[in-house]
Write a structure and sequence with these properties.
The chain has 496 residues and is an alpha+beta fold. The chain has helices spanning 3-20, 44-47, 74-86, 88-109, 160-226, 232-266, 296-299, 301-321, 367-433, 439-473, 486-491; strands at 114-117, 120-125, 141-153, 327-338, 350-359.
């Protein structure tokens, strides 16, 4: 090989390496987290004697898509279907993602040359005193016809642009996960408010039934008083109890209306045009497939968002490191220029220029070093945030599992208390009819019965809202494989 060919080969190799470029960001790994082997609140002993809530196996009917259908409530299904269509918080989150996706395309455009043109037609007359002697000369007036084309390109020798693209892509993926988190939160809020509303209907049904029973008791005390067996005091006590219970039943309308208005807002409908028919709570907590703890990291959108932000911070370190290296800009200009329109586009009217420009910072008093340290610190901050998000996720799952487990046992005990209060009320009423006990004893047993019945209804409301909260803490029917890929981000396709 001749020396000339050897030098040419070396030059071509160097150019090829430069064009291939390098990435200066650290190699990315998902931060390690401590993942338990099993959920603490799902030990078999905890559920051995528990009824009212079936514990699903990890792989049984794994949550997918429309998770609310697991409750088998047509009214709830209809409400949830409206969330994606009309909820403005979700729409805002979606457009936030669209903006983040546009940033990816903006960053990617820097990998390619920029071509511009600026045609101009200028009428000119040069100064007549510009001659070296200073003696005025003739200066004609002419028209300058110009059609230039300018090309500029910054080869990504040190990976600054590619790290910028990666950073924007990770940010867009985090935004997509935030969108899913927003969607899930709204859906769970709809379910929780719906179960609370139905719970208010159940309490109203209970109080209405109790009012009927208290009215019969009032009729009984009046009849006994009129026959001389009972006392007028018993009539006043019975009437007081009846009116107080009627007022309590009326007061339930406030909370029901508020829950109804909240649901209207969540589904994007004016509260003035929205209503839900009265219907007591009938749903029972479903068997929710909780999965394995290791799967939680893939199923929660907030964890996915936090992890993508870690990846974005890692790419930012590479962008900061690239500032240590020179920026090379390749520029070229060409076009046609003439003072006569007829010869504007002729070959002699052509012009061109081309050449590289290299820019390098020689002294910055530690600015670049401090910038790299800044992004390293921000990276460590996102790692800590990611790990804290994971810990919070496991806490929420354990909290809701414990809540469902304990509520299930508590409901059994409360139902037993209701049955005992019913027996006590029957006995007290019989003894009052026989004249053995005063009516105050009847009021005490009736009040005790009503209080226990209200607690039983409230526990079932809590059980249903805890079921929806457990689904929320498990990530709904989502998993991280649904995040948009880099190809989808740059194609501009829809993701909503």
């Amino acid at each position: 090989m001749t020396p000339y060919r050897l030098r040419a080969t070396i030059c071509l190799s160097v150019i090829a390496c430069l064009l291939t470029g390098c990435l200066l960001s650290p190699k990315y790994h998902v931060p390690s987290t401590e993942t338990p082997a099993a959920y603490k609140e799902l030990t078999p002993a905890d559920f051995k004697n528990t009824e009212g809530w079936k514990v699903a196996q990890p792989r049984e009917n794994q949550l997918r898509g429309k998770w609310w259908e697991i409750f088998n409530d047509p009214q709830l299904n209809a409400l949830e279907e409206k969330v994606d269509v009309s909820n403005q918080t979700i729409v805002a989150a979606a457009y936030n993602y669209f903006a983040a996706r546009a940033l990816v395309i903006e960053a990617r455009s820097q990998l390619f040359p920029t071509v511009t043109t600026s045609p101009a037609l200028t009428r000119e007359r040069l100064s007549a005193t510009l001659s070296p002697s200073g003696i005025p000369t003739s200066s004609p007036t002419f028209t300058d016809y110009l059609l230039p084309f300018d090309v500029t390109w910054q080869p990504d020798f040190f990976g600054r642009i590619r790290d910028t693209v990666r950073s924007a892509a990770y940010g867009a993926q985090a935004s997509a996960a935030d969108l899913e988190e927003t969607r899930l939160t709204i859906q769970v809020d709809v379910a929780a408010d719906y179960f609370q509303l139905r719970g208010q209907d159940s309490l109203k049904e209970l109080l209405d039934t109790t009012v009927i029973a208290f009215r019969l008791s009032l009729d009984l005390t009046r009849a006994l008083f009129e026959t001389g067996i009972g006392a007028e005091e018993a009539v006043a006590q019975a009437e007081t109890q009846l009116k107080a219970t009627e007022a309590q039943a009326t007061a339930l309308g406030i909370q029901r209306a508020q829950f109804e208005h909240a649901i209207a807002m969540l589904i994007g409908q004016p509260a003035s045009t929205f209503s839900i028919p009265f219907e007591p709570l009938k749903s029972s907590p479903p068997a929710i497939p909780f999965g394995f703890p290791s799967e939680l990291l893939e199923r929660r959108p907030d964890i996915a968002s936090a992890e993508r932000l870690v990846a974005q911070a890692n790419a930012q370190i590479g962008i900061a490191r690239a500032a240590y290296f020179p920026t090379v800009t390749l520029s070229a200009a060409a076009g046609f220029e003439s003072v006569m329109f007829a010869s504007w586009f002729t070959w002699p009217s052509r012009f061109f220029s081309a050449g590289p420009t290299v820019a390098e910072t020689i002294f910055d008093a530690g600015l670049r070093r401090a910038t790299v340290e800044q992004f390293r610190a921000q990276y460590e901050e996102t790692v800590a945030t990611y790990r804290q998000t994971v810990l919070t996720a496991f806490q929420q799952v354990e909290d809701n599992l414990a809540s469902l487990r304990i509520l299930s046992a508590e409901i059994q005990q409360q139902d037993a208390a209701v049955r005992a209060a019913e027996r006590a009320n029957v006995l007290a009423l019989e003894r009052y009819k026989l004249g053995l006990d005063p009516y105050l004893d009847v009021i005490i047993t009736q009040t005790t019965l009503l209080s226990n019945q209200e607690i039983a209804v409230t526990l079932r409301i809590d059980q249903m809202t805890s079921s929806s909260a457990l689904i929320d803490s498990l990530g709904g029917g989502w998993d991280s494989s649904q995040l948009p890929s880099p190809a989808q981000l740059t194609s501009g396709g829809p993701y909503f």
